[in-house]
Amino acid sequence: MIIGGMVLDIHATPSIPANPRTTTLGKANYVLGGVARNVAECMSKLGAKPYMISALGLDMVGDFAFYFVVS
Question: Which segments constitute the Carbohydrate kinase PfkB domain (predicted)?
């Protein structure tokens, strides 16, 4: 049983645009993180079946985390 935090990390990287008139000057990747979630992932990769308790918000981030952690 793992009780703790699960967060959504946003990794943003700037880039030099090929077209200087563009407004897209980089990209963002969403990565699940948090100490408890990382520990649960490591345990499952080692063959264990961890159970995790964490708070989730009723928003896009909570939906994203729930979809990728439960599936």
Answer: 3-64
Vertex 24 angle, CA 61 and 12, to 5°: 45
DSSP labels, 8-61 = EEEEEEE---SSTT-S--EEEEEEEE-HHHHHHHHHHHTT----EE----SSHH
Token pair, residue 46, equals 């080692």
Question: How far is residue 24's CA from residue 34's CA, in Å, rounded to a whole number?
Answer: 29
Going from N- to C-terminal start, the domains of the chain cover: 2-70
CA distance 44 to 51: 10
Q: Which residues of the chain have pLDDT under 70?
A: 17-20, 22, 24, 71
pTM of this prediction?
0.69
Q: CA-to-CA distance for 37 and 35, rounded, in angstroms?
A: 6
